[in-house]
Amino acid sequence: MADYIYTLETRLSPDQQKGVTLVLDAAKAAGMNLYLTGGAIRDIITGFPIRDLDFTVQGNALKLQKDLERAGAVVGDADNETRTLLLTLPGGVRAEIAMARSERYDKQGKPPQMAPATIIEDLRRRDFTVNAMALSLNEGSRGLLMDPFNGVADIEAKVIRVLHNYAFLEDPSRMIRATRFTTRFHWPLEERTQARYESGKENGYIEYIQSSSIGYEIEQLAYEDDPQGVLKAYEKEGWLKVLNPRWSTAKVDTAGLGALMKTRQQMNELGYTPEVAPAVLYFLTERLGEKDISDLRRAIPRKDLVEAWKDLDSNAHSLAKRLSGKEAGTPSRTWQLLSSARPEMILFLAITARQQAVAQKIKNFFTKWRQVQQKIPLPEMTELRITPQIPAYPKIANDVFLLLLDGKLRSRTETLKFLKPLAPPPPPPPPPPSAKRGRGAKAAAVAAAAVAPPAAASGKPGKGKGKAAAAPATPVPVKSAPAAKPVVPVKPVAAERHVAPVKPAKPAADAKVSQPASAPVVKKPGKPAKTTKPAAKTKAKANSKPKKKGK
Fold first, then answer.
1. DSSP for residue 64
2. Each residue's pLDDT tens digit, 515-538
3. Number of C-beta neighbours around residue 285 at 10 A
4. Would you place residue 444 in the very low, low, confident or very high pLDDT band (cuts 50, 70, 90)?
């Protein structure tokens, strides 16, 4: 399971992945099971470009329309009979959401009787094995591939195979679709499928094709990578006359169509993804009459595609007029105008522009002016701390580019002179290190004491507990006095106050070596000696002599 989900996530574009998430959220909110089906699964497995997303839900797909429109989807058509939505999801992703249904054909040429069904029954009504697969997107079965007719094997064998013997009889448009697939993939029909295809042609099955199927096949021509090649195959098989009696390859603007595909490839390399379907239909029907073009537009189910096709000429004329006026009087203004225009309009105008000045500006937009971006002094901007991390960076970089484009900054020196006032102030110096406390300070003091000169004793009494010293204080013997006061260890002083060194006293036998022993106590004659508490916490006594009993 996980392999197909991984393949799905790696093969879909970011916009297509967002589209899958959007439809999945809407289906969950409606309580419907959702499956990715048909050509999307075929293209994911084969590695061919994923043209659109086909979804199937177990339920009425029309109930998802409002939620999807609120999320930014544009509905091109809603079929109440088949419960199907034709959408354009955010990012220009084409999608179809259909109700899982079964179909039964009672009579040739008549629409089938449809009823809600399971996903497996829905796969049985489809045309070819390579299109009869579904991938579950539901919790608990996410990533499960359903392939009841072994379509994966036919993909590996690179053949087109119908599901059953009456496939072409029930829906004659499948013969047109078979021709389109064999032309696109360069896969042959499977042997028995080829025999049924020839039988369908001889027996005139195509006469019973439904008008909705004709419109669907006309629309699919617009999304082919080689529409002219498919059109030639249609003409050879006799299907082009079925789509329109007066349509032929002679009515196609071959030069315009070739330039369209070439320019689209150049734009793709620059990061643009224009929708070329309206322009493809424009050049495919360039020499057809107005009535024939109207008939073709009326048959196409996606009304948003039809509207884009109709408005192509007028929108391109409006853009050309703006490019000829003061709005595009300088290279920088022209760049800003074309950067804000729709890629589809730029693509179409690049081929159909009759004014040389307009065509040259579009050519400079794609070639000459983009080379000016290399003159932006990025290393010097980094030295001036003008980096993408600051909020004003996009505006500064764009201003420099536009000035370079107009020739107002002619050298690197002028560019740096422009940039220096825009540089952010230097960052403040780091704060001084705070004074160390606790164990760290004690360890630092001990380390400093290891290299410092020995400290002299001080006359001030003190316990010295928890304080580091340069050297242990040496107890000094004191003569007897009338008032016997105990002598305590002296407090170490700073290293710079030097006094005469004294002889060290011998430490007690049971005292710890790491800590100094307490100073000896001078006893008063006739009275017991009193000892002071040791400086360090040790169990040994400072004086090893036994005490005399008191009176």
1. G
2. 444 444 444 444 444 444 444 444
3. 20
4. low
